[in-house]
Design a protein that fits this description.
It comes from Streptomyces benahoarensis. Keywords: Signal. This is SH3 domain-containing protein. With 125 residues, the protein is mainly β. It has one domain. It is built from one helix and seven strands. The protein has a three-stranded antiparallel beta sheet with strand order 5-6-7, with no helix packed on it. Strands 1-2 form a two-stranded antiparallel sheet. A hairpin with a 2-residue loop joins strand 5 and strand 6. The longest helix has 16 residues.
């Protein structure tokens, strides 16, 4: 048998769900830095570089000034857009990801990417 407190809690939750007042929690893979974009589900607030010692640039071009060096692992990301072409170890891409406080990093260096495609889950700028 349910205690009075458990029964009251169950009724409160059921009532909130029935009226739409119960907020749904994000998916288990979501992190606090994730943001929701209208119509696109969860958008990553971070992404992982497969390469180590990656440079960030002031603008989304290799010829642009290097603003940060030795990036690697999981980095915060803001958005992505097309820029200059990059070829590295057989990978080719013209999408660049903005790493806040660091600069622009070629999508060629991010995990889960594909040639000439944006990094999955990172919103456009």
């Amino acid at each position: 048998m349910f205690s009075t407190q458990k029964r009251a809690a169950a009724l409160l939750i059921a009532g909130a769900a029935a009226t739409g007042a119960l907020a749904m929690a994000p998916a288990a893979s979501a992190t606090p830095s994730d943001v929701h974009a209208a119509g696109s589900g969860i958008v990553k607030g971070s992404a992982t570089l497969w390469a180590k010692d990656v440079n960030a640039h002031q603008k989304p071009y290799v010829s642009s000034k290097v603003t940060a060096r030795h990036l690697g692992g999981t980095v915060p990301v803001k958005c992505q857009k097309k820029g200059g072409n990059v070829s590295y170890h057989g990978y080719k891409n013209n999408w660049w990801v903005n790493v806040p406080g660091k600069g622009w990093v070629s999508a060629v260096f991010f995990k889960d990417g594909a040639n000439w495609k944006p990094v999955p889950g990172v919103r456009g700028c």
